[in-house]
What we know:
By secondary structure, this protein is an alpha/beta fold. Helices cover about 30% and strands about 30% of the residues.
Amino acid sequence: MDIIVRLNRVSVIRANGPILKNINWTVRRGEKWAVLGANGSGKSFLLNVVSSGLFPSEGSVELFGARLGERDVWEIRSRIGMVSDLLQKAYDERTIVEDVICSGFFWSIGIYREISGGMRRAARSAAEGLSIGHLLSRRYGALSHGEQKRVIIARALVNDPELLVLDEPAGGLDFPAREELLASVDRLARSGRTVIYVTHHVEEILPSFNRALLMKNGAVHSSGDRGDVLNERLLNEALGYRFTLVEKDGRLWPRHY
Ligand SMILES: Nc1ncnc2c1ncn2[C@@H]1O[C@H](COP(=O)(O)OP(=O)(O)OP(=O)(O)O)[C@@H](O)[C@H]1O
Ligand SMILES: [Mg+2]
């Protein structure tokens, strides 16, 4: 099976010490990974490394079979769709939604190149797939938080990426909005793409996700097949508090003490 991401002994070190410590991780084509960890455990840093936005201090990163630094980074980036809070907050509120989505073609926030008719058609189709086709001509700042999330997901999808990297895409959504977003993620996951989904909430992990990685204090606590990793013992250890799990329709729901 094709290897999409391979991290070999990756560390990210800042003035105060290491943020990521000696990470080994292999993501194969078509796998759906859930990544969980407490606040500050290094999930967003890990995703930034995986999406080629951050070069590690130590270790090597291979994306689509090439070592990061040895192939044009823009060619690599054109194969990755990224969603994060930082991206969601980066747009000027006056930007038209269609332009936000089209900026995904350039891995940028601003638009510095001409948007072709084909790009606009792709933006419409990505928006319609997420039920936000009616918002295309609106100003980004006039949308609700949940609508903006969908716009940022459409932006990530517009280029038909092989790897989709979602950093807490359901953060800040109310229950119905979260469930609707998860239904979209489920459709994407079943489309054969490789997906990495970061969350704090075990119940967001859909049955279509077959692999899981738990982060703790900047290191991998455990990783592997969903069934081997998503259990009370490992999750309690990695997340640092006690809860039990109840399974319903293939999803695990925590019951806190
Ligand atoms: N510029 C920086 N320099 C040094 N440390 C930083 C910097 N930015 C973030 N950190 C620290 O790096 C650690 C990992 O941060 P990261 O954002 O990856 O955590 P996270 O697991 O995504 O957390 P959350 O669940 O809150 O999003 C945190 O302890 C954070 O305080
Ligand atoms: Mg984070």
